[in-house]
Write a structure and sequence with these properties.
alpha/beta, 8 strands, TIM Barrel
């Protein structure tokens, strides 16, 4: 079922993002996490790539198993990294044959060690190219696109970034899933601007429970999100006093407060970036009392 239809039928909701391991030897542990989190009844689950598309080859098999073996509604990430018309068409056909109804169309990040994104194909240079191709050749698929509450780090301005989101939606994007953020006011201001620009698609906020101080400092530098000074100070104090376990405790508490506030203020649901951490995610969802 297309995610837009699922959202219209069930609010509020929680959805999850999984990060598949690079090595098949780690799949048993990965699917053990999936088995545990299946119990929280996510509206849908997305499956991301590794850096530069390094786990792309696993995506089709994993989303198929999520659908058939676990009864989840998967959404496969699809990027322009290493893309060609034949490769994209084959991947999408494989999704259809597996009964997978949804994709998240992204430009993608440059491979590790490469500072800027360099397209591999003239046909797929931007997420808009993927959206248009999917809508033209696989019109039955549901298409989600990414939104950036704090502006894409490569955008020339917030206005230009919003214009680009409008193009993705006009070409066929039915749902917007946001990049992570930590200030809910940024999300609601972003939604207001999108609505004023004519975007009516559901805008689902992405929430990340911080589990590592070093990792989140690196990640916000890559994705354009910002760490509020008070939250950063709390994380640094926790790290100094108790190390990674204390940081994770603070991060989970912050994500729980953030998700509660988003839902209370009218967000349609919350998309949790799980980091494949079952305990943290189950703790957050239990506190939401959905």
């Amino acid at each position: 079922m297309r995610i837009r239809e699922l959202i219209e039928a069930r609010r509020p909701f929680v959805s999850l993002e999984f990060f598949p391991p690079k090595e098949r030897t780690a799949w048993e542990g990965f699917f053990a996490v999936v088995e545990r989190l299946k119990a929280v009844r996510p509206l849908f689950v997305s499956v991301t790539y590794g850096a530069g598309g390094s786990t792309h080859a696993h995506t089709l098999e994993i989303v198929s198993r999520l659908k058939t073996a676990y009864g989840l509604e998967p959404m496969a990430h699809l990027t322009c990294v290493g893309a060609s018309r034949e490769k994209i068409r084959g991947f999408l056909q494989g999704l259809r044959e597996a009964g997978v109804d949804n994709v998240l169309a992204l430009r993608g990040d440059p491979p590790r060690g490469q500072e800027h994104f360099v397209p591999d194909s003239d046909d797929f240079q931007h997420a808009t190219d993927l959206v248009a191709f999917i809508r033209q050749e696989f019109p039955a698929l549901g298409v989600a696109v990414a939104g950036y509450p704090e502006c894409h780090p490569e955008a020339v301005s917030p206005g230009a970034d919003l214009d680009y989101l409008c193009r993705k939606v006009a070409l066929g994007g039915e749902v917007v899933v946001t990049q992570l953020f930590f200030d809910n006011d940024c999300y609601f201001a972003f939604v207001d601007k999108a609505r004023a620009a004519g975007i009516t698609a559901p805008i689902v906020p992405g929430v990340l429970p911080v589990m590592s101080l070093a990792s989140i400092k690196r990640l916000v530098g890559l994705c354009g999100a910002s760490l509020p000074p008070a939250f950063l100070a709390e994380l640094e104090a926790a790290d100094a006093a108790g190390g990674p376990a204390a940081v994770a405790k603070v991060g989970i508490a912050q994500a729980t407060r953030q998700a509660k506030d988003l839902l209370a203020r009218g967000a349609p649901g919350v998309h949790l970036y799980t980091l494949n951490k079952a305990e943290a995610v189950m703790s957050i969802i239990a506190a939401l009392d959905l």
